## 1
Amino acid sequence: MNEVFANQTLAEDGYGKGKSMINKLVDKIKKTGAPIVVGLDPMLDYVPEQIKAAAFSEFGETPAGAAEAIWQYNKAIVDATYDLIPAVKPQIAMYEQFGVEGVKTFQKTVDYCHEKDLVVIGDVKRGDIGSTSAAYATGHLGKVQIGSKVYAGFDEDFATVNPYLGTDGIKPFVDVCKEQKKGIFILVKTSNPSSGEFQDRIINGKPLYEHVGEKVAEWGADCMGDAYSYVGAVVGATYPEQGKLLRKVMPKSFILVPGYGAQGGKGADLVHFFNEDGLGAIVNSSRGIIAAYKQDVYKEKGITPENFADASRLAVQDMIADIAGALASR
Amino acid sequence: MNEVFANQTLAEDGYGKGKSMINKLVDKIKKTGAPIVVGLDPMLDYVPEQIKAAAFSEFGETPAGAAEAIWQYNKAIVDATYDLIPAVKPQIAMYEQFGVEGVKTFQKTVDYCHEKDLVVIGDVKRGDIGSTSAAYATGHLGKVQIGSKVYAGFDEDFATVNPYLGTDGIKPFVDVCKEQKKGIFILVKTSNPSSGEFQDRIINGKPLYEHVGEKVAEWGADCMGDAYSYVGAVVGATYPEQGKLLRKVMPKSFILVPGYGAQGGKGADLVHFFNEDGLGAIVNSSRGIIAAYKQDVYKEKGITPENFADASRLAVQDMIADIAGALASR
């Protein structure tokens, strides 16, 4: 948490100040040719033994030790992939598991990814009534006044938000995004098997997720970057037909697409999440990249737990090729 | 975050071990005659100047200073009210505003309330896909394995959970609750003005909140304490008619009722949230209690910013009387 002056941003490139973060995301996708985001969702089980051993020998088998292991693991993966990708998506649940120490590593990870000029999507899925959503928005995207000074909070560039509470749960996030030139992705149709339980229920002839998608388009209409709104949506790769529909319902919204890889989504499933310009979607893979070293396909290429981060780099390259191939052949 | 042994709990009274936390909540409500919970949702604006001045003089106008001010404020309010009430509900958004330092104060507040034998409802409104919900459940209610050791996470007794992702977002919380004898409150009908935007939409002749309420009853059916399930619901005081309906839909679920006081709910609005036994609901007030010292009614009774915590005690007593009166005259 760093002190900032009223209109200062921590970024030095103008993004998040004059230039909206959604433009930075689009520019970086174009530059890398990679409409992908690496999900930094570390489970302690994923972390190679040598990293855990070093961390535990320094801090013991403690939350501080676990947090250190995860930090070293994240750092190695970021170092091995940052030049290939536009963005990362740390999932805060994986850090909250370890209490305050875990949250410190979340902050360290966000800050380090900013040093590497990555766009950081905080996967926090917050959402509450108005004044409380305002506090979450301040904490994750905004700035807080303390006496005569102003500090940035966790300072992600984007956050994921839950829509169940309606407009007055979303608006405080939108207000902070307008002020800070940041953005949100609102849950519309999630990637999990039971997402349909409520999201698919029919209201006036249309599923709930379509109503939510319409609201996303409405909330985002006056939140435009150059070509896309900074009010985006989350739609799971596991639901390609719904993605196709929602692409049309929210033409100006960027879609964050989880569920690729470990959850079952493939490049060919994803083509309809994109617009004709090849933009409009960013696909997340977490386990498939950060724990790639455990997959036989990479072991056969000489990967061991010692060079695990090289597997993450290979997995990123494979994912980029898979999606590019699918988009080229549509 | 404290180390614990596999089946050990931090509580020494058997609750959370053999005895379910829902039983502790019910027992404490009976003992205090107070079906209320104090919402520890501190905004820096609520904290009296002398507390802020002391904290800032020690730590500067920094996140650590803000966190210290909030901690001292919380502690004074807890000290002034803990013998009158069964439970507190810290709203984690208010702490996340101040980043890692704020989260430390959240943890300190949870721990201190446990020392005072209060039931702690973590108002965290988490919810994600299966494996991620499992991480949240571990972090807030469960225990995490680090090498050969086991640690409790933030260690609240209950957490609030968002249902938008369906059963596989909820089940990991239920699993941890079964194991730890803890509980959750699932958002059903929230207290905010726009809660109806999605929650009131009609599906097969019934509003979405009723479908969610039915699921809460189903999820909670095999999660019984002595008289009530430890899978509860959140229904706003601002919607008394919906509360009346949902009371019948979920007869065994405890209802956590926000929206009393500052949001407009009154005792008379609340009677139908309770069962005939006078139990089944617990009503939250946040600002109305923690910032009571700012109200004219308490200023007229000699309250100043210096004795702000006395106002909180008076406000708790007034709230207990308001609800008891409403229940007696129904």
## 2
Amino acid sequence: MPTPSRRSQQIPFSPIRAMFRLADEMERAGNGPVIRLHVGDPDFAPPDAVLEATSRAMREGKTHYPPSVGIQELRAALAEKVKRRNGLAAAVEQLVVAPGSTEALLAVMEIALHPGDEILLPEIYWPNYVQQTLIASAKPVFYPLGAGYQPEPGGARSAVTPKTRAILINSPSNPTGAVIPEATLRALYALARERDLWVISDEAYEDIVFDAAHVSPGSFERDLPESERRVFSLYTFSKSYAMTGFRLGYIAAPTLLASTLLRKIQEPLVGSTAMPIQWGGLEALRDDAPIARMRDAYRRRRDLAMSLLKPAGLVDYTPEGAFYILADVASTGMTADEFAVRLLRECRVAVAPASGFALAPEFAPDGLPVGAMTPGGAPEYPTHPKARTRVRIAFCVSDEELREGLTRLVGLAERLRTGRSAGTTVG
Amino acid sequence: MPTPSRRSQQIPFSPIRAMFRLADEMERAGNGPVIRLHVGDPDFAPPDAVLEATSRAMREGKTHYPPSVGIQELRAALAEKVKRRNGLAAAVEQLVVAPGSTEALLAVMEIALHPGDEILLPEIYWPNYVQQTLIASAKPVFYPLGAGYQPEPGGARSAVTPKTRAILINSPSNPTGAVIPEATLRALYALARERDLWVISDEAYEDIVFDAAHVSPGSFERDLPESERRVFSLYTFSKSYAMTGFRLGYIAAPTLLASTLLRKIQEPLVGSTAMPIQWGGLEALRDDAPIARMRDAYRRRRDLAMSLLKPAGLVDYTPEGAFYILADVASTGMTADEFAVRLLRECRVAVAPASGFALAPEFAPDGLPVGAMTPGGAPEYPTHPKARTRVRIAFCVSDEELREGLTRLVGLAERLRTGRSAGTTVG
């Protein structure tokens, strides 16, 4: 076999794979189900009307190639949605449909970043960001998060170099659930404007915000002329409508030229987005009620999680959005990876160690990551220390399962702490 | 707006866009429909059972994230299919599902090519190949096609440099319809083996072969140990089952390591392939009868096209597969682009000038294409001279429309020739 490209060797794996495999193995070995708090896939069903519209589109012969940027009907409805809900000023031509916001993010990075360029990412982040940065042959540089995992604009400013071309903002955040306040978003946007950076705003969880209104950074430039705009706003149907398996997302591009480049790059990236799925998405936009119902459920589960984890000393912040919380198991004396494996083995509860959300590849002077592929298919990268004792818990199971899973987690943490304070060896 | 990456500026557009726009404009202006021979999108419907299976999957709750490489049931069925129909020896783990073979091709290129590497492409080719090569920051180098647009292995050998990492083979070919004989495929494979190149075999039209059996280059290495395999075989549901709008394709990887890298790279490229669509694809594999029916129709149309174009001196070969023919309008004294515009304006028939299937970007010493973006969003690249007077005709309309469209085309060509031999100015 010829040697695979260095780039393809050096991309890390998504971190929750290992937990998936372990959880599956345990279930196959018997002794009942595992409580799956490691997966961010809503336990709800998509609205019935969406399924019907998708089926109807197929029956009506909507089975041929759509335009690479999406069908006009959906783009028009999305332009209306981003105006009404996000406060953006985007013409229909600036809306680009994608088979999921994952692909949308990659398309945007290919437009923003040239090989050797740098992008600012939060230091605890959704792992796709670094994978995609490496596909674009660019370099991730991390900006610091303070209390409650809030970005520190001063730290972001210090991370800018002459090679920086973009800053990624993710609010609400996966994996922390942090919702960034408007003042911080404005400070990050001002930095981007001052240093002429693209802003890539991943708003996948825009509809799951509990205690405040979601703010879209693109709204800050709605009154600026096109020539001064810089925000790519990215959205998805996955979380708002429990449509993860449909693979449907979209981009509001800052300018017509940016959307022309997106149209061009969608052709070789994916061709287009499945035609019947687009008609299903159009139907989803007609009714906001399912969004509110699911948001209420996630808020209830967030409150439930806080009521169990906070008294146990396992969290030091309140997530205000998304459906995640990062718990800190430092008091057990274990790393998150050790704790997660023990929790799975002893208590049949799966969580995601945050180490995988904080890989920090080191780079050689040639601009490529340092690190050779292991037999598993990727290098072992260092992890940001802040993530070392954190685990991500997702609220994508029933309230009962969440309560049971977290009760077991708290119980294990307490046993480990007690054993530790009694001088027993742990691990 | 910040400056878009040089890479994103330099990717060319897909060439049939301009004809789409012109044809749409003409229809909007009135005077009846345009006969659309420029689009390679089957005019058939997908099998009913596929639509039903897709709808059923949604109703049964198959609406959540699938694995990035596809659902196990579909991968198992595909492993069986590539064994039976393509003569490959691929374990289930080597089959990777993709949202279309477009994305599959890009994923494979990212694994085969590192920035600065070279890939051998046929000199008349499906335009995505060059777009994708530029996304991978690699360099396309073209191998010559001889009579009947058949690859010349000697010419391919001469094009290999120390930077060459892969050769792309496309049989049956888009845009020529050429089916490469086994002896030529073996010669290209032997070259790849000798120079340790990856082979990327795009077999999108595998089921549309009229006069011979389809041969998969991957079958040449079925008895070799994994360490010596090198062929990525790429397939799609789009053409075989008229499922273009479903966006469903797949890869048979040469080795387990290659499929591990594909699994890793699918995560940041697209996440996964829409879940209900995968169940529809599984259903499609249960019945080969629709394939044979559509193949018969394409053969009939190919024969019809030959019966009109050959006596008119507009073709010098017989396409043996796919649903395309390249006609040569040199005798009219016009370039293909001029002829296509005149045919559309005067006769309301749209064809695709082959110039867009033969763009040959020139490269600077830094490995990047020469050429600045025009206001349209891409550079103007030179075209291979062989394509200058060719137009691609697709057989994706009814027999009646095809006959009418080609009769008009032949009529225009004859008028132009007559005018020319009579000394009249043309153009």
## 3
Amino acid sequence: MILTVTLNTALDITYRTAALTPHTTNRVTEVSERPGGKGVNVARVLAALGHETVVTGFAGGRTGDALRELLAAEGPSDALVPVAGTTRRTIAVVDESTGNTTQLNEPGPVVTPAEWAGFLTSYRGLVAEADAVALCGSLPPGVHVGAYAELVRVARAAGPPVLLDTSGEPLRRGIAARPDLVKPNADELARLTGSREPLRATRDARRRGGRSVVASLGPAGMLAATPDGTWRAAPPKAVRGNPTGAGDSAVAGLLSGYVERLPWPERLARAVALSAATVLAPVAGEFDRRAYADLLPGVVVTEQVT
Amino acid sequence: MILTVTLNTALDITYRTAALTPHTTNRVTEVSERPGGKGVNVARVLAALGHETVVTGFAGGRTGDALRELLAAEGPSDALVPVAGTTRRTIAVVDESTGNTTQLNEPGPVVTPAEWAGFLTSYRGLVAEADAVALCGSLPPGVHVGAYAELVRVARAAGPPVLLDTSGEPLRRGIAARPDLVKPNADELARLTGSREPLRATRDARRRGGRSVVASLGPAGMLAATPDGTWRAAPPKAVRGNPTGAGDSAVAGLLSGYVERLPWPERLARAVALSAATVLAPVAGEFDRRAYADLLPGVVVTEQVT
């Protein structure tokens, strides 16, 4: 099975309004809720691709209960660890007059040292059973900034490959623990390396400890620097839509390709096609299966020989 | 006891943000939750004034559970009727850079005819025990537009005086059922009567069926047209702050004055002082007890002889 870790899970709430006008009262016409957080989104896509998937991280309070109830109706298995605090809500307010989205993100529960220790015990057991591990998203308050580095080391000691998808200082420290794969976007890569030149920055990120580094470059596709070579992968055409979750779908594509032992060009093609099919899906964070099947054969993967 | 009815109760959530910027991701720094809806707010103030108070209306789903749990820690008794749908959330986003608030209001649960019938049975029993009844706020989806007229008639048949504080078509129909008191604000009164001249509009509202009509005129205080006379009541000084809940505090002032058999000028003075003390309170919807005690003796009540 594939294990995804989401330390700061979220109940993702979407509000539709005719128009969002600041400093007034806005009537919400439609409310929907979904279990969220990056690793939960990755797990949903992996399950849709037919992979046995287990979700772990923290969940607590009424929003944690709501998240677990909604997760039980989806594909992944629930190995979330209870926490005394309350799982955060994220609210996406979609303004129907413009199509724009305003996001409000709660901070998340404060995790105590005892809760972190309890999570580590559970994580060690899950990692021993896993074919691959994905560590995704931000850290909740109270969790130490080197948490991902610690989780990378546990996974490396146990054996399965570990992918890291986070940002800022947790990424900087996590990459130094030598994860098998990191998947920064262009902004995260620039913050990490100080370079906005993708090829240079991706190679720099490898020197910092990432065995393979796959940078997601938005509509331009992906750039992968690996021990086997360096590739660019681009979608057959530019797609327009909602990019929410596109990066999580790319992670699912890379991980599924890894456990299926696909060569790098095929993993990248899958990641790029899933990502574009997520931008095209009518519901944020889902992927359009037909678009995925249509796009996959057209992804252009080019080896970079420099 | 005093019974307050809130058909569309709410879990009131307040978010603090450094600045709310539309079409971006906004980090919420502080989250607080409170049981809400206009009748719940009225009951909170009545309980703070020392009155035995019972809250009814509908509550359902996880947000309904959260509301009831928070209500249990406050003064009023809980006689809310369960509903299969989910109680709405309201979100007040306070932008700390400007102090402005952006409000997002969910629509509320769809109430079925069977749930409405169950509520009516419960309401009949509660009204028989009540010294006064307050009907407050908007109607949730599914409840018929003449609902307040129906609740006014039940109260009038049972005996206790009934106050109506709503707007639009539910007010128009409710007032025709001859409630003892209606408390529109200036906008609601203008929509009801077509007149922006408060004295004319207040008297017109009496002709439409309100035995007494007390119009809240914001910082200018209140105007009351009653069988005993017509009065204006004005606060001793203009107050600046958050007007959220000021109207609900005024309702609590009027109702408590009624059951204590105060003459109209004293009821109005109490309503105006409570309303101003709510504007001055640091937490939206609470009232500042010291400000209330300071303001009360200074409220100027003038009889209108025309």
